[in-house]
## 1
Amino acid sequence: MQLHFSPSMRSITISSSNGFIDLMKIKVAARHISYRTVFHTILILAFLLPFVFILTAVVTLEGVNKCSSFDCLGRRLGPRLLGRVDDSGQRLVRDFYKILNQVNTEEIPAGLKLPDSFNQLVSEMKNNQYDARTFAFMLRAMMENFEREIRESKFSELMNKHFAASSVPKGIHCLSLRLTDEYSSNAHARKQLPPPELLPLLSDNSYHHFILSTDNILAASVVVASAVQSSLKPEKIVFHIITDKKTYAGMHSWFALNPVSPAIVEVKGVHQFDWLTRENVPVLEAVENQNGIRNYYHGNHIAGANLSATTPRTFASKLQARSPKYISLLNHLRIYIPELFPNLDKVVFLDDDVVIQRDLSPLWEIDLGGKVNGAVETCRGEDEWVMSKRFRNYFNFSHPLVAKNLDPEECAWAYGMNIFDLSTWRKTNIRETYHSWLKENLKSNLTMWKLGTLPPALIAFRGHVHPIDPSWHMLGLGYQNKTNLESVARAAVIHYNGQSKPWLQIGFEHLRPFWTKYINYSNDFVRNCHILDS
């Protein structure tokens, strides 16, 4: 770029470097413009020209150098110099948003053929020259179809998981059958538990008595082994294991052939308790035998369910509430502990899906303050699955009897590891309250709550619960895949409540080792039944 001054200083020409194109020519009239003015003009131009050069370079780098005329360059540089931006792209976006909003309020055309993939959609758009409206309809229909398929897949997954959680794994079934056969053929498997000389200790209140009700032999072995190995005084431990009639022989065989000395183990079947008669447990008899209830728990869980009106999470909760274990007499026996063990004063009740990682003898030193049930409250945490539970999570407060008698904000507590003061319990009407509410729920066709052991217990134990430190009992290992491993390692008792039990294939792999470490894989029965073989 060059400046040319005429000899008479009456004109100034600004040209390109090759001299062929004049960018600007200024003619100076001597009568009207002084030399000072010309000098000032030159100074101003000298100041502005570098900026013009920089803008031209920027535009060139952006591809505007394709322009073949100054008119084109002006159209490109003009808005930049004036602070304006071309908004054609924004107008296109706004127009497309408008079309999307219109399509969202209209019905999808009948018979609209949807492509199977995004690539097919792009190909059809090119071939058929779709307008924006047709494309929007295609996009909406494809999205709704994908959402519907994903939703159906999620419900199918939940159903399969429910069936897996309700089934008995092949290895555990094998273990029960082999041990039952051993009971009939091996005298050592039938030996008395405990030996006659230790029978008085079954009612000695100076010992630490644990009660476990289960028909899962492998799970029972883990509970007992973990408690004994974690105890500072294993010689003070007495385990009372209650099982059903069909599992009794196998359960007895296991603990007869695999003693946990110096701890003491007693195995009893429900058929061996004289107190468990129809007269004493009429409601539970009805729960087990009523056809409507049995169909509810063993029938088709999809039939009659409006899946379009429920979320997968709500459906999962309903499936969990329909576990067949909830109508098992074995699962309800905990409410009869004072009658089943009339000589005991204080016991710790354990579920079969727990692992003991710390000495539990301090539990017997906890002052329950005249309460019956020492339990961890489940309304003090942040997670929604386990530790944020109140009565509203368990009961139907649209039912008038529930709304009248219960507080939806009352804190819930956990079964699975409970300290029971049986002496105080026997002075209450807890069992009668439990029965009466069960009867009311049966009369209302299960509309007050879906059957289970916890909801009626929440009512029956109202005013009789003493909260204990949450570190004693960590819940949720059968629900939450993202459970913190450090917290698990610190807990005294970890509880695999939920569907993903550690003995099932659907159990969480990173949480399973806390349970499997207490399985004796060298045991012939465990090895021959291929327990948890990968």
Note: The chain has 20 helices and twelve strands.
## 2
Amino acid sequence: MHHAGGHRLAAMLAGAGEAFASAADRLTASFPPAVAAFLRLLLRAWGALSVPLLRGAVMLCMAMSVMVLAEKVLLGTASAAAKLLSRRRRPGRRDVPVEPDVEAGGGGGSSACFPMVLVQIPMYNEREELVREECERWAGSGVDVRYEARTDRAGHKAGNLTEGMRHAYARGCEFVAIFDADFQPSPDFLARTVPLLLRDPGLALVQARWEFVNADECLLTRMQEMSMDYHFKVEQQAGSSLCSFFGYNGSAGVWRRQAIVESGGWDERTTAEDMDLALRAALLGWEFVYVGDVKVKSELPSSLGAYRSQQHRWSCGPALLFKKMLREIVAAERVPAWKKLYIVYNFFVTRRVVSTFFTFFFFSVLLPAKTLFPQVRIPTWQMVCVPTATTLLNSAGTPWRRSAHLVVPWVAFENAMALHRFKAILIGLFEAGRANEWIVTRKSGNGRPTPGAEGRRLKRRCRLHWLELLVGALLLASGCYDCVHGHGYFYLFALPQSIMYFAIGFELLGVHHTS
């Protein structure tokens, strides 16, 4: 039986090769002889190589899918264990009493028992705030607040933070709390985070969780909330629990000033200045802790253009940082080997590069190509079981009662955005022209609609994203071909996925604002 099956397979491949060669001859018949001969050579070479190349791609995707799934299982297990243990002892609210605000005149004690904390709010052209007037109003009531303006944008956010720490009043502060302009920390934020730094002199950073005031603004913000929930509840929690290391989020965190200084301060060499500082501090032996029960309200970008700019920065910056610091990570003497392995393999390679490439290539390139080459087989476990398990683990941080109905569009959206993210990763790795492009993420303003917002939403620039439109067209064509000539159900995936690509390509998602 095996021998007969081998003969049938050989006959099928030979027949396919002959059919391809015949089609190549008909296609090139209208060209001049020399051009036709060259094209026939190329087409026949592709006909001979296409199936082996696709089979090699299937094997590569098998390995990558296992890497991604294993990392998701590791993070999910670690975060779940940390959550179970935290039910017994929560260091945030239960262990830290909220003291009166001495600076604001509350309580009768002396301020000498309180550590000095510098609160920095780096910003650029924040139209929703009258910053100077607000600072003057608070200063008039006795609060020590300063409005500092730079003459240029050198270094972007890293430059702002560096400049802020150069002032004499800042040098006397033991800790530094940082918030982006749209963040709204609760009055007890410092009382719930700073004591953790006081109790552990080896702790450099306390990172709080973000929550979003405009998550219900549109479908785009709802899907962002699902992704960010996983990032904080699983990725950040797992990193904190496993090896006291994770990427600093750039806001809603409190740093020990000594750790910032020893690590070399803020660096503008990439657009991931927050991760850059965290990585350099970790290589010196400093540790971080994530406190998920301390939540800070913030805002999600509600326009697709703003979201794409943010994702470009968040994907390109870490890729460039990894390229620049790989040797330093490997050579670090204060970090154990297992922690280096976690940083290189889990934090950078698998989570950022492999996961992004696999998501785009497997679902948007390999599966459509397979419809044209039925002799290329993809195991069911790879095509169905692993993606399903990965999706379930990715949605572990999302309350199912709230977002279960959005899982399908969210998966399609993440698959489509993987193209944009992977392009940004390549730009970062090769230090292409946009590697250090910094575009401030535009937000609508605290989740509150501004006057005339509905009218502005109807106006939009016709901006097309051609790569997304091209991939959407390929998925649509392959889905239609599979529906008519195929023997499977690939079209059930390809057609909805193509719709999401078109929605991104034509910028149909999110709220549209005029400039």
Note: Confidence is low (pLDDT under 50) at residues 91-98, 104-110, 449-459.
